[in-house]
Prior knowledge:
There is one protein chain. By secondary structure, the chain is an all-alpha fold. The protein folds into two domains: about 5-70, no CATH class; about 90-205, no CATH class. About 55% of the residues lie in helices and about 0% in strands. The chain has helices at about 5-15, 20-30, 35-40, 60-70, 105-115, 120-130, 130-140, 160-200, 210-225, 225-240. The protein starts with 6 loop residues before the first helix and ends with a helix.
Amino acid sequence: MANILMPKATAVWLVDNTALTFEQIADFCELHRLEVKGIADGEVAEHMRGVDPVSRGELTRDEISRGEADEKYELKPASSKFDKVVAPPKRKGARYTPVSRRSDRPDAITWFIRHHPEISDAQISKIIGTTKNTIEAIRTKSHWNSENLKPVDPVTLGLCSQLELDALVAKASAKRQKMEENREIGSVGAGIDMLRTNEEGGLETSDPFADFGAEAKRKSDQNEPNADDVFANFGKSSEEDKD
């Protein structure tokens, strides 16, 4: 199947400039045979100007010659000169937002602040095409329309696509999780370094349970009666009874 940009105009040119049959032209241009016959008879596309498929890179001269030599030959479109589609350059800077949708951006910012606080102001500014000053004003509720703002999904507002939003949320969540893991590792490492420093410096860490045991033993020693005192008091009590 040939991808002809202007099939009827191409058929006009092939009818006027080649000896191809109606069937061959109809198959190549994806038209009906009777429509091609009508073009040849002047009943269809009477005032239409023909378009050369050779100059447009849709057909080659050799292919036309093969078709003219064999009525049953099926014309094959020319291969594209551009085998690889060049991707458009990656967009830099803030997204352009149409004027009709710019009034919806504060609602989208409110949605980001409430539902995805892990996303930075720079990321919000880039995906919906706003400024950091506007985001800060909405965050601090100093925006002129703060009382009427309501959180609305930016995809629903047409400010970005669902794929772009999902990618941004996943990226921000992964970055936040990595920062938390690094913070935990840093806290554990600081504790280990402190213990190692105390051991190297000959410092002894206090043990509250050891102090409690020593205090209990001291009180127990003070309250424990002495055998000599007991017998001395016993003898003294007997003499007082005799008197």
